[in-house]
Design brief:
heterodimer, A: mainly alpha, MetI-like fold, 2 domains, 75% helix, 0% strand, B: mainly alpha, 68% helix
């Protein structure tokens, strides 16, 4: 196909070289515009990195790399450290993935293999709509509907049942905290993993599945032995895409996590993530060091967010996972 | 199908033994061995096979449950928003300003609706042409290496956390100046650009090569081919991509917090006025951080308006893509 086009365009361009002025100008303008737009898109990444580093420079020179491990955040004394927020980001994203990967993959298998065609065409779009809910609405719902429910029912239950574990170790107080933040992130990540994995499972050749069935494998054995292994790297890549989303989510987390400065072992305590701290404290940031420290948080976030996405690209390069999400 | 002597036998599971004596001969293909010895009886799985099928069914059940869970969460969220918004929704809610003081009932969210419309429209006006141009560059002009570089840049841009996009625009346009609707639009455009570009690229790749070849054979120049053949063929898909990007951008909050959040509660439609434009996402966010029950009620109403728009837009985009059949799925 590309060969044919290549030949055709070469022939075309020879014909064009003596063509009308308007065509030569038109071709040049179109090429120039396309190239300019692409150049701007490439430059945007560099500009974002530069601007964030530039904004953070004051905090970088003041705190250095120690900012990453320092857990004190005292704006009134000009002391800033990202340790507690790195912890909050890691814990909430980890729990979100822990819940979202099995749920998302199950939904993907259901939608691609198990469900009847009619059911698929209803539930598939509904799952994608879950991803379309704006984070601010999910967070608002989280704080006014989900948090009271967790406080009254689920958290006391977990505390009674598994209170010997430090993560459920304190009695629930307000319903806000790391736990609900993880749940809200789970709701955001599940549709990503589900829709990417579903499209990957659909590409597994039917002959392989038929072969396994003919050998006497049950449906689940076909899924476990054939379908999941042949799309495994893509599924892992989708998990990294979900991780990128969870790490960078600012608004919904800010609304439900309770803006705590300290590291707590218990999930029922308030905390903060890198992204939520920026959204939370930006309006009150008055000193230049304060603002620079928020930019420093943004810089850390940019680096780990891009790393998660690059990991997704590299692991899933056989599948072009981004393509699925761009739709 | 008799087993050779010394072959491993399933001995632990005795389910089904009593009913069918022949099942003693069973193996992984228990169905066959029972069938051979009792041809008249119905073929029922026993023992090991029965357990495997049970596991299979349990797993299928849990997969169905997972799908229902996701749909259930969607239903609960939508129902929560709709039922709590019902008390404030009226025509006045869409056309009035919010009350001047915190803690007052009534009023509407007209400034936020107008502001969001303006901000998203300007963002689309920036991102849509740029996204199409980038997609055209990828499919029409770029060589293999340049193409992969641009695509990598788009994917990375898509992976930048939106709050960092907000910080970028804050540093670029707001520091030393003021918040403005345009700064918000600019941030949203950065978020929309990779979405539109990648999806448009996919659609352009689906334009049949024979159309291009026909145009080439007629001696039509490249730019006329693109404007007259390629883009019109891909129109439906490009529109779908744009609508999806608009739906995504309309609900983005993080970049707007940093670029257009300190606003007065009056209708303004000028994104370049050097003043922050009110907008729905930020309005909900601010209300959720305060403790004003009337503010909550208005925020539920605002959430309903936003959610309705976004869900309708994505439904519309889906219907559009099915009609034009240019986007798979």
């Amino acid at each position: 196909m590309s060969g044919a086009i290549g030949l055709a365009s070469r022939v075309g361009s020879r014909g064009r070289s003596g063509g009308r002025l308007a065509d030569r100008v038109g071709d040049g303008v179109l090429y120039g515009l396309c190239m300019l737009a692409s150049l701007l898109a490439v430059l945007a990444i560099g500009a974002i990195a530069y601007q964030v580093i530039h904004g953070a420079s004051l905090a970088i020179s003041r705190f250095g790399v120690g900012f990453l491990t320092h857990t004190t955040w005292e704006p009134n004394f000009g002391i800033f450290g990202a340790g507690a927020f790195l912890y909050g980001t890691a814990v909430t994203s980890f729990i979100a993935l822990l819940l979202a990967v099995p749920i998302g993959v199950s939904i993907a298998l259901y939608l691609s293999m198990v469900a009847p065609r009619r059911v698929r065409s209803v539930i598939g779009p509904l799952v994608e709509m879950l991803a379309a809910i704006p984070s601010v609405i999910l967070g608002f719902w989280g704080i006014l509907v989900l948090a009271p429910f967790l406080q009254a029912h689920l958290e006391p239950f977990l505390h009674r049942l598994l209170g010997f574990l430090p993560i459920f170790g304190t009695t629930p107080t307000t319903g806000t905290g790391l736990f609900i933040a993880s749940l809200i992130l789970t709701i955001m990540v599940v549709p990503i993993i589900a829709s990417v994995s579903r499209d990957l499972f659909l590409t597994v050749p039917q002959e392989l599945q038929d072969g396994a069935t003919a050998l006497g494998a049950t449906r689940w054995e076909v899924l476990r032995g054939v379908v999941i292994p042949s799309a495994a790297s893509g599924v892992i890549a989708s998990a990294f895409l979900g991780l990128g989303r969870a790490l960078g989510e600012a608004i919904a987390v800010t609304q439900v996590i309770g803006a705590g400065n300290l590291i707590h072992a218990s999930l029922f305590q308030p905390g903060d993530t890198l992204a939520s701290r920026i959204a939370d404290q930006y309006p009150g940031a008055t000193t230049s060091l304060f603002i620079a420290s928020l930019f420093y948080l943004g810089l850390i976030l940019l680096v780990i967010g891009l790393l998660a996405n690059i990991a997704a690209q590299v692991i899933g390069r056989r599948f072009d996972v981004r393509r699925v999400l761009a739709r | 199908m008799s087993e050779p002597p010394g072959a491993p036998r399933e001995t632990t599971d005795t389910t089904g033994l009593a009913a069918q004596p022949a099942a003693q001969e069973r193996d992984a293909f228990g169905q066959l061995s029972t069938g051979l010895s009792d041809l008249s009886g119905p073929l029922t799985p026993t023992g090991h096979l029965r357990r495997r099928q049970l596991v299979s069914r349990l797993v299928e059940g849990s997969q169905t449950a997972a799908a229902l869970l996701a749909v259930g969460v969607l239903a609960i969220v939508v129902y929560s928003v709709a039922s709590r918004a019902a008390s404030v929704l009226s025509v006045g809610f869409l056309t009035k300003d919010p009350p001047a003081f915190i803690g007052e009932a009534g009023g509407g969210i007209a400034p936020a609706i107008v502001g969001t419309a303006v901000i998203v429209a300007v963002a689309t006006a920036i991102a849509m042409p740029m996204g199409i141009l980038v997609a055209l560059y990828l499919t029409e002009f770029a060589g293999l290496r340049v193409r992969s570089a641009v695509r990598l840049a788009l994917d990375l841009l898509n992976g930048v956390p939106t709050i960092v996009v907000g910080l970028f625009v804050f540093g670029l346009l707001v520091v030393g100046h003021h918040q403005s609707g345009f700064a918000g639009s600019f941030a949203l455009a950065i978020i929309m650009l990779p979405l539109i570009a990648r999806a448009t690229q996919e659609v352009l790749l689906l334009v049949p090569p024979s159309l291009r070849e026909a145009a080439d054979a007629l001696g039509v120049s490249r730019w006329r081919t693109v404007l007259g053949v390629v883009l019109p063929t891909a129109r439906g898909g490009i529109l779908t991509a744009t609508v999806l990007a608009v739906a995504r951008a309309a609900g983005e909050t993080a970049p707007l917090i940093l670029t257009t959040s300190f606003f007065a509660n009056a209708v303004s439609a000028n994104p370049f006025g050097g003043k922050a434009l009110p907008n729905i996402p930020t309005y909900i966010f601010i209300a959720s951080e305060s403790a004003d029950p009337y503010g909550f009620a208005r925020a539920w109403g605002a959430a309903f308006v936003l959610l309705t728009f976004i869900l309708l837009a994505s439904l519309g985009a889906r219907a559009l893509s099915q009609r034009h059949a240019m986007l798979p799925g």
